[in-house]
Amino acid sequence: MDVQGQVSLWPLVGRDSELKAFTSAWAERRYQGVVIFGPAGVGKSRLAQECLARAAREGWKASRASASVTAAAVPLGAIAHLIPAGVDLSDPVKGFAAVARTLAGPQRQRWALLVDDLHLIDAASTVLLRQLMDAGVVRLIGTVRTREPLSEAVQALTGGDAVHHIDLAEMDMERVEQVLRAALGAPVGRRTLTELYTGSGGNMLYLRELVLGALAAKTLSCDGEIWELSGDRPTGTPKLTELISTRLTAAGKAARCLAASAALQGDTAAAETALAEGENFPVMGLFAEEESLGEAWLHASSGRLAQARAVLTSAAETARQKGSGHLRGHAPDRYRPPRRFAACLRPPHRTRTYV
């Protein structure tokens, strides 16, 4: 297998403490499930897959389900494949009991069910899952994206003392180095490690896409002993651009401003945090319209910083001529950004910015 194919698989490294927590919780009879919470791209699904594999090795029958917006539009859409043929659900009480009996079978088979993106599951599926968990037929392994709204049904399913929670965070630089070494098969240089860690913020999905993009662009190479980046910044992939664009679309204008400014400084992690916590940035002063910010971000997130600067510079000059600085009048002391992206508030042009 070539290096690019190897990186696409992405090893599970640096999650020993979380795996230990899962093993410990899974061994306790009082828990009906384990749910992994964390931001997008942090590695929840990859960790959940390993947890499911460990349960299967212990004799549990493994099954998977993926919740989605599309599946949520259909009652029981996420777990319809678990419902045996011939079971009548017109009477939910009798129907759910029949599902439990059929799944367990005469051998009292134990099921370990992985539900990815549990926050998107439909209400009917949560009711059936809860019944199967209470009956001892199914134990749940789930993933939930933080900062996403949870329905009352999902809160009831994942809350309480019967479900163990694992909080997954971005990796620190030491663990990122371990991941890169395992994925690439050799150490990475210190500057390369710093660039990739800064660009990804320890987010595993972003890190992988940055590495894949650099390999494809041949800006990440190995001399036989150490991997090094050439050039100033690692470039990502079309998938990374699409991921960030989706977040950008859902973000408010203030978050877009901050994210665009952060991206122009080369700090993907700060830009991502701006998008995730956009509601915390009520004032931010790049002179640019929505369309310009979107175009600039797409350039910046793909490594095309010169084009991004040109877009924002042109937008700033247009706004200046129109006298339409959208935050004019806000006192400078009205807003104090977190230290994490204080440096990213410097605009890439000389037009005055109000914060």
Task: Please describe what this structure looks like.
By secondary structure, the chain is an alpha/beta fold. It folds into 3 domains: 31-167, Rossmann fold (3-Layer(aba) Sandwich), CATH 3.40.50; 173-229; 247-345, no CATH class. 47% of the residues lie in helices and 10% in strands. It has helices spanning 3-9, 16-26, 44-57, 69-72, 92-104, 123-134, 152-158, 173-184, 190-200, 204-216, 238-250, 253-264, 268-276, 290-301, 305-322; strands spanning 33-38, 61-66, 111-116, 138-145, 163-167, 220-222, 227-229. The strands form 2 sheets. Strands 2-3-4-1-5 form a 5-stranded parallel sheet, sandwiched between helices. A hairpin with a 4-residue loop joins strand 6 and strand 7 (227-229). Helix 11 (238-250) runs antiparallel to helix 14 and helix 12 packs parallel to helix 14 (290-301). The longest helix is centred in the C-terminal third of the chain and has 18 residues, at 305-322. The N and C termini lie far apart (51 Å).
